[in-house]
Amino acid sequence: MNNFEANKLLDIIHHRPTWQVPGERWVWYQEWNRALFFHWKVDPEILKSFIPEGIQLDVYNNTAWVSLVAFTMEKIRPRYLPSVSLISDFHEINLRTYVTDGEHHGVYFLSIEAQKQLSAILSRRLSGLPYEKASIQRKSGYLSAYDADNSQTGNYLKVDYRMEEQPKTKTELDRWLTERYYLYLEKGNRLYRYAIHHKEWNLFNLKTANLHLSYNIGALSLSAENIEMVHYSDGVNVIAWQQGMINR
């Protein structure tokens, strides 16, 4: 997608919450493709220790959520430069919870894993987000597969899956979990907020088989047995703005 086509994304905002897109020019383009979403209900008390001062947990009907999103990042590039597939294209897993600063509802990453070492290093340096290297492979077929293993943390995801039908309607919770347009980051003693924009996620039902999953961070323990919801999406084209510092 060239810059002209990317700018056309700004004409499609009906699906966003009440706040509008930033008035400044976007600085990054990227694609989040073939995404698997796994969602858990989590005790808010477990999550509070992860959340930096200046934002708070965002809850749905008094329930906190954590989501693992396994996808393929493609064509990431600065606004005025081409993407370089060696660096720009890689499989990624992010583990996130839901937060708000009182006005903007977004996500806070508990971990981010990238397939390529160089991509992890550059992404961490350029964005400040907590990227680290993990072994990630995926294959397509009647039953596709996503296989990830982080030797440093012991966290892993192994699943065979198939995309199924698209539901006729989305629930309010479906939208709450997926339509998020801000990312929060604590770096040093400062808190930052990234704004992003994309079309509404196309969500499909997901059929899984041979699902083995374990993600443990501090007191947080996630497994295949206690997954509450799953989604699949073919993906979105994303534009992102420069990070902004939040006073706290």
Compact description:
The protein has 248 residues and is mostly beta strands. It contains 5 helices and 15 strands.
- N-to-C terminal Cα separation, in Å? 37 Å
Specify the CATH homologous superfamily.
Acetoacetate decarboxylase-like
Might you state the CATH topology name? Answer: Acetoacetate decarboxylase-like
Q: What global shape is seen?
A: globular
User: Helical proportion?
Assistant: 10-25%
| Proportion of beta-strand residues | over 45%
CATH architectural label: Beta Barrel
The CATH class, by name, is: Mainly Beta
Q: If you average the pLDDT, what whole number results?
A: 95
Main sheet? 7 strands, mixed, barrel
Question: Pairing-aware structural class of the strands and helices?
Answer: mainly beta
How many beta strands in the DSSP annotation? 15
Strand line-up across the major sheet? 1-3-4-5-10-11-14
Tally of contiguous helical segments: 5
Low-confidence stretches: none
Computed CA radius of gyration, to the nearest angstrom: 17 Å
Q: Give, in order, the helices and strands.
A: HEHEEHEEHEEEEHEEEEEE
Tally of individual domains: 1
Describe the fold and architecture.
By secondary structure, this protein is mostly beta strands. The chain has a single domain, classed as Beta Barrel (Acetoacetate decarboxylase-like), CATH 2.40.400. It is built from five helices and 15 strands. A seven-stranded mixed barrel has the order 1-3-4-5-10-11-14. Strands 7-8-9-12-13 form a five-stranded antiparallel beta sheet, with no helix packed on it. The longest helix is centred in the middle third of the chain and has 11 residues, at 117-127. The termini are far apart. The mean pLDDT is 95.
